[in-house]
Specification:
binds ligand C2E, alpha/beta, elongated, 23 helices, binds calcium ion
Length: about 650
Amino acid sequence: MTASGRRGTARLFLGSATLSLIPVLVLGGFLAASYRTEARHRGIAEGRAEAQLIAQTSIQPFLGTGPIASSVKAHAGDLAHLSTQDQSGALRLRLRDLSGSVVFSSDRSGFSERPEDEALDAARGETVALLTHVNVDTNDTGRAGPAAVEVYLPLFPPGSSRAVGVLEVYLPYAPIRADIARSLRGLLVDLVLGLGVLYVVLFAISWSVSRGLRRQVTRNAYLAGHDALTGLPNRSTFMQQAAESIARAVEEHRSVVIAIVDLDRFNEINDSLGHDNGDTVLEQLARHVERGLDGSSTVARIGGDEFGLILEDVSDVDSALAGVRESLNVELEISGVRVTMEASVGYVIAPGDGDDVKTLVQRADVAVHVAKRQHVGVVHYDPEHDHYDPANLALIAELRRAIGANELVLNYQPKARIAGGTFESVEALVRWQHPERGLLPPDRFLPLAEQTDLIEDLTDWVLARALTDLRQLHVAAPIGMAVNVSARSLSRPDFPDRVLRAIDEAGVDPTRLTIEITETALMSDPTRAAIALSQLDAFGVKISLDDFGTGHTSLGYLSSLPIDELKIDKSFVFDMLIDRSHGAIVRSVIDLGHNLGLRVVAEGIETAEILRALGDLGCDVAQGYYLARPMPVGDLPRFFATTPLVQA
Ligand code: C2E
Ligand code: CA
Ligand code: CA
């Protein structure tokens, strides 16, 4: 048992002992009170009986039927011996007449006192007995005498039932009390013993109940910190232990490894073999991970198919983790089916890779995702991996769903010919109508999508939607549709096929479609891009070079491509009238484009002045908020009907 465990037990013991003492003390107090009352009652009764005896033996024989005063006078000699206590056993003995006046007193006291109520009651035939102290009501001595039973008895002459006087007697209480105590002693012993037994029983009950409760509390705490299936520490315990390990490592100037082991294809196993079998797999693998580690390491189950490891004192991290991975690479027989498991491992070394546990675990998570994607087994976190950040990965997962759930929407921004001012085409711009975050602009999710295969789905979706919208759009003159395509989509060998399939499925004329490709996208794989573009060109699809001026396309390469259009980057257009060099770039691009036989488009036109300046420079097509903002497809017919001309 640990020191804190021992302390806890001692506290529990003391608690139980004190708690069970309370009812015993209450009951003891109550019994003691009734014992005292009982003793008083018995004392009074005994005093009464004794007084009766004195009356019968020492007084009554001398009483005549006349007033008691005369009987006293007549038998003064006989009564005299009552004056000594030894004779009567009384502390004081008085005789009173029916009016309560003292006619005889063993100690010669009371002759001048006023008659007492008790004496008058006794004169009427009642016996009164009470516990008191001698002289308690006559303050002449200022001090009460010894404890006594005070009894007032009516006195009857022999053979008569008419009282002639009253006997007032004070009997010493001490011997009576001793007598009673003797007779009650047995009872007292029984009581004390009973209380003792009661205490022991209560203590035993309370001790066992509180120990049971404590066990339950300990068990609950254990369950809260552990995974019910594998019995391993759970995520919150893992985080806590990792934080402690990191703090210790920092203090001791050494490092600690935090690793995450993620099972590959576990969901498939779960889905195909059922959840019960999935659980069995996890249980067995948990034991394998444990076996693959030395005693100083910690294993926790931190997610559905994720284990967290804390490795202290490892010299060769990679081989240690490869060992763990190896230990998981086992063939399990689950309900007669043989399954081979594999796992990916990502890790961080603290404090080198960060010193706070949340960041470290998040980075290990990033590394494990990289390991999974690249099928490389064990990966040490690198800041380069950060675009695999779990938060972003979550967004990617959502985006995957969003594409299926039609949460993406396209807005269309019209482009106009500057000479003549007719709107001749639109550019499709994607947005994500996110259920919680609202309408997300493309730069919030496109960069993420571009890091994964998801961009293919997105490009397919945009192409299909844009072309379908184009076919269904009823405007006076047939207009063109521009769709943006990312570098990653462009570099896929099947990209031209996908575009052509989309055109086919929508049933539109391929010459109405323009593919916008950024200059940088083009340069990321120039050879592949050149092939793709010529294939598309062969079918009449137009190509526009977007954000032109921001990249470094060589003129030779540019002239070799089947391009139809150059789109001057809006960053140059915005301030072309203020920034002379931007103005010069705009002018040069227009000239360059025309010299290569291309149309030149200026985007980002926000003012009439810029539109006019571009017209003066001979720019062919204009696009920008000044002319039209991107709008839902439903707004296009009205827009085209009511805004046929631009005031250049
Ligand atoms: P981009 O291809 O250069 O698209 C033009 C962007 O400039 C659009 O932003 C448009 O709304 C904005 N814009 C147009 N006129 C003006 C103006 O006068 N002033 C200002 N300040 N902005 C103007 P948006 O819609 O946010 O799109 C941003 C970028 O996202 C696009 O730049 C494009 O590279 C990318 N993108 C949009 N949709 C798609 C898509 O479906 N697929 C791919 N691969 N990329 C897309
Ligand atoms: Ca564009
Ligand atoms: Ca652009």
